[in-house]
Amino acid sequence: MKALPLVVVMLLVASPVLGAVGPVDGSTQAAALDQADPAQVQSPSNGTIHVLDIPSSELVQATVEPHHVDLGPSLDFAALQAGGQIQTGASIERIESAADDSTRQQLILDEINSIEQRAIALQSTQRTAIEQFNAGELTARELLVRLARIDAEARGLNERRVALHELATETPDFSINSGRLAALERELDTFTGPVRRHVVSVMTGQSEAARFSVRTSESGVVLSVVADGEYVRESFRADLRDRDQSSVTYEEALDIVANNYPIIYSSRAAQNGTNVISAGDSHRVRINYNNGQLTAYVDAGSGQVFKESQSRPLGSISTGTAATEIKDGLRLTVNRTYPGGPLRIQLNETESDAPVDANVTIGLEASQESTLLGHTGADGTLWTVSPSSPYTITVIRGNSAVVLTTSPTPIPDLVTNATAENDTSAMGTSTPTDSTSSISAVAQGSPAGAPAVV
């Protein structure tokens, strides 16, 4: 469906029933009303949820890497965090100790310039890490560690950005362009993601060991993991960006996401279900829906979704296409999924259908090695991420064993970056009301043609 025309957005902002809308990081904010028709809400499954992934023709590397607590990277992450905090503290102290307001203003600007330069360096670091992994110069573990370091540094730089903005607001007769600060935040977003953050959590011992799916193209990377009862994925495609252009408005960005993720969009929450933030050369569209959350980044030049993160509770995921093997009184069911998708393994007794707790291993068809996944537990269920190639699941309980060889399914509904002109009939209807606000759009600094609303 189409986003509300901007003139409607502006009128609704003025409506007293919405209450006061304050500035975000010095930027202007507009609120639009958009309520999902309950009759149109669909229950998403991994057969209908669109994902931003890498087409098979562009795939360079694909693997699943088990990770656990690791002292080396753990100390490295701790040092990185401590170093960032020390540098931020030193910067703040230097600014607050400035002899006069003019010096204080210059120090703030110097610090912001420094963060912007570091963001440019992180682009190069990320690109080099992907290229080295593709060339076999980095292992999957080493790539994950590097991406996690980039994530940690980007988050630290953003914290410094926020602190500098606060200092700027406290400085007499001084302000920093809100669009510049917002654009810097969006740029730093490019290097962060929920899967990268979980890598840090696992390696520092804050979370249990996990298996991470890693898929790369020449300049893109897709990561996924099953953690804390959720399936989490993130993807980044540098090839879908066009930094030389900036013509897509935040309204168009919402339309683009609605067209590319129709089931998620039609399932969005009635209250505060959709949020759009426009800054720099991208738009961030976040949708909270019945069974999860989507954050999609639309490039303001190409008009394409170039970055995505999704999280979905395991209990909301469809079991998908099943492959079953029965032997020695055991029934092994593998609900197949796409490469890097949420893979469910179920073990039951054949006669009573009672769940069975047993160890599970997985091996790739092209390899003679198997990896212990864990055990099925009291409910007989084990979740993991799917390999990108044929694999064998083996379960052993005492003298009984069952083996199943199968393959991943095709990637479901790969995001094709459909334009707003495509048919949107599957997305339901939107009816403005006086009490329900499910879309908030933040036009920060009007970077991509979005007028400031005051």
TrEMBL record:
Q: Which Pfam families match?
A: DUF7094, DUF7096, Fn3_arc
Q: Where is the DUF7096 domain?
A: 2-208
Question: Boundaries of each DUF7094 domain copy?
Answer: 212-317
Against InterPro entries, the record matches this protein to: DUF7094, DUF7096, Fn3_arc
The segment annotated Disordered runs over: 416-454
| Bias kind Low complexity: ranges | 429-440
Which top-level group of life is the source organism from?
Answer: Archaea
Which regions are flagged for Polar residues bias? 416-428
For the Fibronectin-III type-like domain, which residue ranges apply? 322-403
What's the name of the protein? Uncharacterized protein
Q: Which organism is it from?
A: Haloferax marisrubri
